[in-house]
Amino acid sequence: MSTPAGWYPDPSHPAQLRWWDGSAWTEHTHAAPPGQGHGLDLRKDAPGGAHGHPAPQDRPAQHGPYGPYGTAPYGTAPYGAGPHGQLSARALATPDGQPLGNLGLRLLARVLDWVLVSAIATAAGWSLVQRMVATMDESLDAVAAGDTTATLRLLEDPGFTAASSSFTFVLLAVSAVYTVLPLRFYGATPGKALFGLRVRHWERPGHPTWGQSILRWVTSDLVGQIVPFYLLLDYLWPAWDRRKQALHDKLGGTVVVRRR
Asked: Same domain for 174 and 127?
């Protein structure tokens, strides 16, 4: 029987704890609480030891609202005191103690990601951009000459409409690849990585799943392209959310954290 996921003494550094995801050690660590009485037995004759699985010598403490050791992780505000275990105060860290990301840095990361996506999409769809710019220049020249209907004709121009729709498709395709793949394999977009931010599940360390990575993109960039005012609400939501989650974090249960 495999050892359940949780924090256990790091085999290579006994003074710290390392997260075991149920099948393998992860990169997530933090200092062990003083006087910790639980250890690992990795002997071949110990349960799970022959397969390299950690085998606790003692039964781990019950996992309370603050993690497997029953004490609040570093940097967290008290929570879990409500009748159904809801947050009773704004959380500053995940249950296992990883600090939540700063909202200012998250905004800067988002702006940087948007600039990079726009630049890549513009390069990929340069012929479409040129066509739209040329049509708009003609419309502006007509307006300057006194043609007040030129702007309306621009919106009805089939060439401009086709180029604009095609460029929107290119922009969304670039955004999807730029966002989903780095989240799935690295836990962060380039903008987030630059500012020391990562995306993970609220309850456990590790990179987002395929489903979580795709849902974050769909409920942010894709929905925002269809309903523009939604993006404003999405960006503002972490300012009052107890876990600093944006709307696109809610469905997949992800949060943005600071890299350890």
From this structure: yes
Nearest Cα residue to 242 out of 61, 65, 93, 71: 93
* Separation CA 70–CA 82 (nearest Å): 17
- The neighbouring-strand residues paired with 20 are 6, 25
Last residue of a domain, which of 71, 90, 122? 71
* Distance of alpha carbon 197 from alpha carbon 199, whole angstroms: 7
Domain limits for position 127: 103-258
**229 part of a folded domain:** yes
- What DSSP string describes 88-157? SS--SB-TTSPBBPPHHHHHHHHHHHHHHHHHHHHHHTHHHHHHHHHHHHHHHHHHHTT-TTHHHHHHH-
Q: Is residue 164 domain-resident?
A: yes
- What are 103's two structure tokens? 């909202």
pLDDT tens per residue, range 117-155:
999 999 999 999 999 998 888 888 887 777 777 777 777
Secondary structure (3-state) at 2: coil
Q: Are residues 204 and 130 in the same domain?
A: yes
pLDDT tens-digit series, residues 74-89: 344 433 333 334 444 6
In terms of domains, do 114 and 193 share one?
yes
